[in-house]
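Local shape tokens

___
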Amino acid sequence: MKTSISVPIEMFINAQQYKYTNSLRLFILLKLIYTNGKTKLSDCDLKQIESIDDIKSRKTTKKHIQILIDKGWINYNSKTEFYILASFDRIRKENDFKVRLAFPVEVSYYK
């Protein structure tokens, strides 16, 4: 698990404007936990994520994952059953974010 990552400021602003802040929280947590950028998201993994992010329902977790898939921030490979997390550089490019400022986020911020 990585100690901290730098999240583009425009992602926070965009999440506030378009009301997907909780989905962004989940995405950042996934990026912190799965530093190689991919995971199978087993039942055990989801329980750990829900515990850290204080998510009460599996339905909520799946909703946030689906939002992230729809945004293109997570891709699902049905052949390998891996979820692939997009890089911040790719997200910046796809969303035409101009500002290169970033905010450091740590897992300890979730507690």
About this structure: The CA atoms of residues 9 and 95 lie 13 Å apart.
